[in-house]
């Protein structure tokens, strides 16, 4: 458990360090990626990308969170206390991870690549997708270990796709998306360690028995 906690703290420190490094001026890689997608958002492709970005980055994570809440309530109703506690704990981790965007943006005050509402670092859409992905992995660790690697792969691809859509729309720098992942992993690992969700699978099976 200690190693997960330390890893989370280090990852959070990297998130803060990256934010401090890019707030005043974008990195060269930021400028290169922004240039590659310059103007994409103005066409039909941009409109379709925005729909995909909002659905994958906002709607589906919200639906997933509601599903966890309903699942916890159903488990309580059926007397499945262990599963209900796991779902509630994972929901807490999910909620704390989601807070990294509204807390981080006014902290770093980074300007976006183009005129757009709110500040830029970290990407809220990527934070949302990564938070849901991490929550799904934690659920698998405790309730369905055999699906853990597959879910982790899907979560990684999901987060990467959302990050790509934000870059294509020109509303985020590349480092905004990297920072979002660092923030979620940092807060997620620290919170999961405190709530005793990591590493966990052996304990979970013992408790369930």
From the spread of the alpha carbons, the general shape counts as globular
H/E element order = HHHHHHHHH
Helix content class: over 70%
Q: Structural class, judged by helices and strands?
A: mainly alpha
- Rg is 18 Å
Roughly what fraction of the amino acids lie in strands?
under 5%
Task: Report the span from N to C terminus.
Answer: 22 Å
Number of strands: 0
What value does the average pLDDT take?
92
Main pleated sheet: none
Overall number of domains = 1
Q: Which segments are poorly predicted (pLDDT under 50) over 5 or more consecutive residues? A: 201-209
Structure characterization notes:
With 209 residues, the protein is mainly α. It has one domain (43-208). 77% of the residues lie in helices and 0% in strands. The chain has nine helices and no strands. It has helices at 2-22, 28-36, 44-77, 81-98, 100-108, 124-143, 148-168, 174-194, 201-208. Helix 1 (2-22) runs antiparallel to helix 8. The protein is globular, with a radius of gyration of 18 Å.
């Amino acid at each position: 458990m200690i190693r997960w906690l330390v890893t989370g703290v280090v990852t959070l420190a990297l998130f803060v360090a990256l934010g401090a490094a890019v707030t005043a001026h974008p990195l060269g890689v930021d400028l290169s990626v922004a240039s590659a997608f310059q103007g994409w958002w103005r066409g039909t492709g941009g409109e379709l990308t925005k729909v995909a970005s909002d659905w994958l980055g906002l709607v589906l994570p919200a639906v997933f969170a509601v599903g966890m809440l309903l699942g916890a309530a159903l488990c309580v109703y059926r007397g499945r206390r262990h599963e209900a506690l796991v779902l509630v704990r994972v929901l807490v981790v999910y909620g704390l991870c989601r807070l990294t965007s509204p807390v981080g943006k006014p902290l770093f005050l980074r300007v976006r690549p183009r005129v757009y509402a709110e500040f830029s670092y970290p990407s809220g859409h990527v934070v949302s997708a990564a938070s849901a992905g991490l929550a799904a992995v934690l659920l698998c660790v405790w309730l369905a270990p055999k699906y853990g690697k597959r879910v982790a792969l899907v979560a990684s691809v999901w987060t990467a796709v959302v990050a790509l859509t934000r870059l294509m729309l020109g509303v985020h720098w590349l480092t905004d998306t990297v920072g979002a992942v660092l923030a979620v992993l940092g807060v997620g690992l620290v919170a999961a360690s405190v709530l005793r969700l990591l590493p966990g699978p052996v304990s979970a099976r013992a408790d369930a028995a």
